[in-house]
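I wish you would study the pair of lines that follows with an eye to the fold:

===
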Amino acid sequence: MSTNDLRSRLTDQQLKVLFSEMHKSRVGKNPKGFSHVQQWDVRRFLIRVFGFGGYDTELVSIECVREIERPSGKDDYGNQRYRYTVVYRVHQRLTVKDIAGRPIATFDGVATGDAQNQPSLGDAHDGAVKEADSQSLKRAAVNLGDAFGLSLYNGGKPDPVVIWSAAHPHLTIRGPVAGTDEVKPEDPPVEAEPDATPNNPEPDPTPPPAAPVQQAPAAPAAVPDPPQEPRPGAMPPAGAKERETALAEMWAAARTVDFEAGLPDQFVTAFGHPIDQGTAAEFRQARDLMAGSAAA
């Protein structure tokens, strides 16, 4: 659609919202530390400006860019476990309509999204698609100006950058411009986009290699997942009961000396593998060491 269509078929009230300054409460930080708005907030303002049914979104394309499967140790019965990283690219099209329901402008947004190191393949695909869908909608909607996050590209600040438009001289956020003696509002200083870096490639979805095990870690490691329950009616393999008993005794000894947080890393240091790959003999040895420490 032409710019004339957009200019003539938006009401003054709609334009006032589009010219409005983004309230600071709408701005958050994403995991990378960049200012952003939430997808649901973008949809809220699309409804506020164009009404219920006043806009359409179309997923032009959805592409699974990469799917990575990595071994993640074994359960108590020797079954291999895996972790999954998935990346999707989404091309989304946003169409806004006038109050009569006629399309007046269309904007496209393309984005990638990932879900890293997930224990479920389904959850990894679901999370990556949601992230790409959210980002692509926001990138399309930013063409509608400050109310949809355009100002955040100017150094991550919510201060308005559009301020006025020659196509709508009778409406600005700081008073009239054309046909009066008032001076046109000054533009704010232009800053670099928060994520604009030279030759910046897409992030590598492959998780980084594990850091070397430290004798004295700066922060306690997470406690490993509990053993998976056997299928109903399945008989545990030989030695499973003995191993489970030794495992429980080791954790009980760790609680006695207040060493539960440090036990996972120390176990790797002592035996060369995670607790979920340990044997009954190793659990008993670790238990005896902690019991000796308590006695001392």
Remarks:
- Strands lie at 28-29, 35-36, 55-74, 80-97, 103-118.
- The chain has a mean pLDDT of 78.
- The longest strand covers residues 55-74.
- The helical segments are 3-8, 12-19, 39-50, 121-141, 240-256, 263-271, 280-295.
